[in-house]
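Memo to structure team: turn this sequence into structure tokens by end of day. - J.P.
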Amino acid sequence: MSFDDEGVCDGVETGGLIAAMSEQVWKGRRPGVPLRLIGVRARGVPLAERLARDVSGSEQAAVVGAVDITLYRDDLDQANRWPVLRGTEIPFDVDGADIVLVDDVLFTGRTIRAAINAICDLGRPSRIRLAVLVDRGCRELPIQPDIVGLHLRIDRRDRVQVRLRPIDPVDEIVQIPAAPRLSQS
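Reply from structure team:
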């Protein structure tokens, strides 16, 4: 955590949120329908893997894939540099599957729209549910999560950073206040 970051959840609290989400993923499954988790790169992937580990102790193992939404973004023309593609890796058939799309933070909904487009290009799932660790509000599209770890209402200009192992050295959720605007006199 840097000096300006405001801690929202430490590692223990973040782990508790993930455990509670795993229970909701498992309770909402459709018996007899293959359960698949797809994480949105980057931090949606380790989150999906942890959710899958928690539900895999049951009779139905959860398989994890990763989706890269870079080419589905609607703001590519506004980027200052070329996007870095990390690739979509979905090692299963999405046709007829019960998909849980996983991301770390839900903000405007545009990332989720892009991820759904990427998944539907591969087939027709039976259902797609959305699981997010933090719902920070300020939606621009009519997209709502089915499973939420934490609802956080903050100023639109502030940022929320989720840090998850193994990408980051620690698990934590922090709020990063927007830089103050310079006044013109």
